[in-house]
Amino acid sequence: MKLASLFSGGKDSAYAIYLAKQQGHQITCLLSIFAKSDESHLLHHPNLQWTKLQSQSMNIPHLTLESNSDNIDDELILLEDLLKSAKEKFGIDGLVHGGIKSKFQKEKFSSVCEKLGLSVLSPLWDSEPKKYMNDLIDANFDFIMTTVSSDGLDDSWLGKPISKSEIDKLIQLSEKFGFNLNFEGGESETFVTNCPLFSYPIKIIQFEKNWDGYRGRFEIVDAELNYNA
Predict the structure, then answer these.
(1) In this structure, what DSSP letter does residue 67 have?
(2) Distance of alpha carbon 195 from alpha carbon 18, whole angstroms
(3) Does the N terminus or the C terminus of the chain have fewer Cβ atoms within 10 A?
(4) Going by CATH, does the domain composed of 129-225 fall within 3.90.1490.10?
């Protein structure tokens, strides 16, 4: 199928594309809605402006819209508008997204797609967390944690590249503090800096860390494609 991808720049949406392509699907465009704030229950918020670099590195066209509301119904209208554009411009048959456990999100996305006669592909759905996180590393996905919002995750995780050893630490912390290892509950957001889909890795040139004692954010201030890597 020709698919659009709901794309946030994080591990889940990027890995969903990777798996969809392995299944023989064609990803014709990326769809990103720039959420008004991190209060959105439907959309990813941090560092979305840098998805343009990921789009360039994957050589996949990128359709975007900006939301001026955190209201779910307003966000779904924007998603419908993006899907209509993707259908007109690229002839898509469906949408791929990186949902793992959120029935709420899956039902919302499915209802919009059904309205437009589009299929929905959720290749990560119900993934076992430990296997999934290790599969990411085994598939050479390089990503950093850009937010933390959970007991057990302090500011030392902000901007940290995640390798096998970090996965082992996260497993221990998730068992101790009870958060979702794959961050499905919003315990952390991520940003992919390199993966097999990319022609060039992303180099983060400048960043800012914000930490309030419980929640933290890693803001990418400046970044570029590393053509010399």
Answers:
(1) -
(2) 9
(3) C
(4) yes
